[in-house]
Specification:
This protein is α+β, with helices and mostly antiparallel strands. It has helices at residues 6-15, 55-64, 75-87, 123-133, 140-153, 202-216, 231-238; strands at residues 20-25, 29-34, 43-46, 70-74, 92-102, 116-118, 158-167, 170-180, 185-193, 221-226, 242-250.
Length: 258
Amino acid sequence: MFIDDQVFESSHQLFLGTNVAHLLLTPTFVFVKSYFPSKFYNYFFLTKPPNYIDWSLLSATAQSMPGEESLYVTDDYYSKNQAFLEKLGVEKLGSGAYLYKTLSSKEHAKAPVGHELTTDITKSDYSSMLEECFTDFADSSLYNKTWEGYRESGQAGRVFETFIARNEGEVVGAGSVVVDKNLKLGYLHNGAVRVKHRRQGLHASLTNARINFANDLGAQQVFSVVEDGGSSYGSLTKLGFKARAKYYWLSMPSSTPN
């Protein structure tokens, strides 16, 4: 893509064809069009200072697309250009930290006592559990259905898998992973554990099982995108993940420069 942002470029190469339907590259921004309707999946990544952005093209692109969009910027970009952006009526919507881990030896992935991990599943085994855990994610059902389709059909150069945790037959945790063999990169996502089964090491077991899966397929690194400072952030950093970048989703401008 030739974007001067290694984290954005490598992650979105993996996202293309999974979360992302297509990318529109312009001299001042990249428009990310998703298969999912949320504005947190459809965004304009600003690659030049705001006074150099082609706001007319950005606005026309947004108007030509169904649904909602947002702006997407690095934390450094926001801090340098906050005053300018605020004059446009832009507000913060949320933040995402990109956490990476370099792979070496196998990780301990044994499930806590009374639990078992398995990949012998169907979407119905875990989808409702994830929807309960991600109550603020309106696209959860569509997301689960889409990624389960990838797991069943596969993609050239990519391998998809979902691990679930059971306790007395009940699905109490899950987590998915995709490995891009060409990029030698794995993406961990959609991980959750039911409330009453947390703080027993189950999240770590599900994470490490996915890390080992990626390692076996030749991945050199894995990454996950989590809320900055959220519970998943703390859990993953304890497992050796390190933050490489932070981005903000911003509201679309209410006005644009003349």
